[in-house]
Amino acid sequence: MDEYNGYLLVEGIVQGVGFRPTVYRLAKLMNLTGYVRNMGNIVEILIQGPYDDINLFVDELYEHKPVQSQINNIQVDIQDKVTEKDKYADFTIIKSSDRISGSAVIPPDMSICETCLAEILNDKDQHYYYPFTACTDCGPRFTLIDKIPYDRKNTTMDEFPLCDFCNEEYSNPLNRRYHAEATCCPDCGPEVYLYKDERIESRDAIQETSKLIDEGNILAIKGIGGTHLVCKTSTEDAIETLRERLGRKTQPFACMSPDIETASLFVDYNDDEKQMLESVARPIVVLDKSEDYNLADNLSPGLHNQGVMLPYTGLHHLLFKYTLEEAYVMTSANMPGDPMLIDNNDIVNKLDGIADYYLLHNRKILNRCDDSVVRFRNNSPAFIRRSRGYVPKPFDFTDINITDNILAVGPELDVTFSILKEGKCYPSQHIGNTSKIRTLEFMENAIDHLLHLTKTSRLDYIACDMHPDFNTTKLAKDLSKEHEIPLVGVQHHHAHAASLMAEHNEDEMVVIAADGVGYGEDTTIWGGEVLYVNSTGKYVNTGGLKMQLMPGGDISTKYPIRMAMGILYDVMEAEELRSIMKNEYSDFFKYGDKEIDMTLKQLENKFNTSYTSSMGRVLDSVSVLLRISKSRGYEGECSMKLESTAKKASDLINITLDKEVIDKRVVIDTSSLLLDVLELIRSSVPSCEIARASQKALAESISDVALITADTYDVDKIGATGGVFYNEYISRIVKECVQKEGYEFIQHEKTCCGDGSVSMGQCAVVGWLNDSE
After folding, report:
1. Is residue 605 flagged as an active site residue?
2. Is the pLDDT at 760 greater than 60, yes or no?
3. Would strands 328-332 and 227-232 be described as parallel, antiparallel, or unpaired?
């Protein structure tokens, strides 16, 4: 039977996931000859055999690809018949080449697999109790890769030459550790050790660490993508000490539990949430506290939910072997606003006075990567933070733009950046608050590295937020000028909407954009808008919440009682407002009655005030009027506590908001909402009922505007984006309103409602505007 040369180029997540040995085993099983190798950003396969067998090989490869791999495309070129001269005697795996460039798909970090975990717990195995055990199905990837192709010499594991035992596994195509670049064992791999002032010699550093935690100490534990601060959760004292040292008085801490059964003792979850918890990415999942919740009350104070994750490294599993604690606090080791610490010297020096001890290791973290955070609403997930376990996996933008290379730098808080290259959009790991100089420096370095990894040698456009004072905007301007690259400013909520459209591959949509802050094209602060958006890269603002005075500007976000005054000032006499504030809320003002008088003067004279339509600010205002919160200690605190309070309600009351058409926009009167809240408080209506009714009124009103817009533009899909839509109740009400009228409801599932996906939306907008295909 005649044999042919089949030349295959495989694109996708095909490096670092055991793809070549899978190809090898399949070819050997089918008696085909040739070779396979990594070639730049793809896998190249030359397969020789009968014509039909080559096609069957391709089908089988799709069917039996490695679990952690992803095949985006296989280019198949079945060439001339095999001649005696070019006939291969066998099928082999040959040395990698970087000759072909193109769009890289670097595998994300993966949690330890069950097989490796079993070896760690087997006292007869070479990897017994060794915390860095990994194979082609698990372990670090993105956090240790320096360049492609993904070979050991191009990772931080290059510093650890393989011992004879590991080299035998690494070199055997039939072994699951064949070219598993993170392969190591106690004889040749990284080591873990305890530190306090100097290295502490210990027979078992991990066991000693668990003991120290259980005694009430705070430990800094270096992981695969950064460092955690860890303490016990069974009592309040260690958590309170950690809060005092970090200056995070009320911010909820995520925790890690040893397994799903233990987690079920303090949180509730459904099948989808369980699947997410146990997924290979192992994100933090925000879950409702159970009735039997028995962890310390100050772990997530004032909230009905708790962030939980399961162990994702051998070290984590070993920590829990030595404790009876149901969970440990696992929070990122950094001062507020700064990037997570990854260097041993920095960990020790910058956490001095915060951590009591340090559990360190000597493997370099090349790319810091915070834990991902997910919350379900409407039975679907949304990322609060898309990072470890997912980055740098790209999104398919081939229907948006395949010719231009675009760098988008995002907004200012919860920042990621994104790179669009050859139809693939690569959102970065979580960067954080770029108003902090160290975080901005981290971002600049991360941009350089991801450009390097994706082999992006040129940029055609740079995209940024329209806010002129953001450090990311200034960085984009500097890069644009330095490299003579066109700069495109994208309105914040347009970018939010575009990320939702891009995720779901939609050409047009009506989108409700509701969050805390976004710079509007009219220089006011938006945050409660309805937009008509399409794939021309343009949008129309059709309505939303009323613009309200924001006395003192950003200070009203920290002390929302000032925002409440601004909203009420529009519908209440100054003296009446002064009287209410002094008699009922004087303790909410940092400077008491004097500040109330000063704030009223600001409102009367429009001095040092801005305008905002932010739904986040309205929710915060309701929260403070109900005395649920006094001030904001962390982003979203007041609104989150309002949501938790509303969970206790029974829908006993309704609030209806008025709407009017102003300049062809449908505008919702939020001043009347706060008047109703005050009246209901005076009528002794329970706070939980007022909280629930307020959320419902806002959700129903803005849904009405979206429905009017959808009818006007003859669109059958309505989406929701922005940080407000992490709120489970508001999301549900909007969905119900939309679906009741026969429209399809679209929400984030693989991207962030909040600012973490704004850079992705910026890429989409600029891609649409400049698509020439």
Report:
1. no
2. yes
3. antiparallel
